[in-house]
């Protein structure tokens, strides 16, 4: 796979993961926790795929700077990092909404 394709794979999968996390949050706000859980599970799958591609790039580089670093590569890493952060924070927020619902 070409480097550009790999980088786009990270961007697309990380972006989809982040979008699904926010969909899950909207579900939780509406009290639809099974929907929220389903969206989060989907988000995890997309994040795993983005991470898999990132791991391939890291392995190919072998810590020797073999992989050409471009602005798009940095952008892809940023997408992956923010999607992981969104996943972690939104999972916590869903738990908060679930707790509030259980107390009502």
Describe the SSE topology.
Blueprint: H1 3-29, H2 33-61, H3 71-103
Helix pairs in contact: 1-2, 1-3, 2-3
Strand content: under 5%
CATH class category label: Mainly Alpha
Distance between the termini: 52 Å
The helix tally amounts to 3
* CATH architecture heading: Up-down Bundle
Q: Output the structural class.
A: mainly alpha
SSE string, helices as H and strands as E = HHH
Helix content: over 70%
Low-confidence parts, pLDDT < 50 over ≥5 residues? none
CATH superfamily: Phosphotransferase system, lactose/cellobiose-type IIA subunit
Describe this structure in words.
There is one protein chain. The longest helix has 33 residues, at 71-103. The protein is built from three helices and no strands. The protein is mainly alpha-helical and 104 residues long. The mean pLDDT is 93. It is 86% helix and 0% strand. It starts with a helix and ends with a helix. The protein has one domain (3-98): Up-down Bundle (Methane Monooxygenase Hydroxylase, Chain G, domain 1), CATH 1.20.58.80. α1 (3-29) packs antiparallel against α2 (33-61), α1 (3-29) runs parallel beside α3 (71-103) and α2 packs antiparallel against α3 (71-103).
């Amino acid at each position: 796979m070409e480097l550009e394709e790999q980088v786009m794979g990270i961007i697309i999968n990380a972006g989809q993961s982040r979008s699904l996390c926010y969909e899950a949050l909207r579900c939780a706000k509406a009290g639809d926790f099974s929907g929220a859980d389903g969206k989060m599970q989907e988000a995890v799958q997309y994040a795993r795929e983005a991470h898999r591609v990132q791991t391939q790039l890291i392995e190919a580089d072998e810590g020797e700077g073999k992989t050409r670093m471009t602005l798009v590569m940095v952008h892809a890493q940023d997408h992956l990092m923010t999607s992981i952060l969104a996943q972690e924070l939104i999972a916590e927020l869903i738990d908060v909404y679930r707790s509030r619902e259980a107390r009502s």
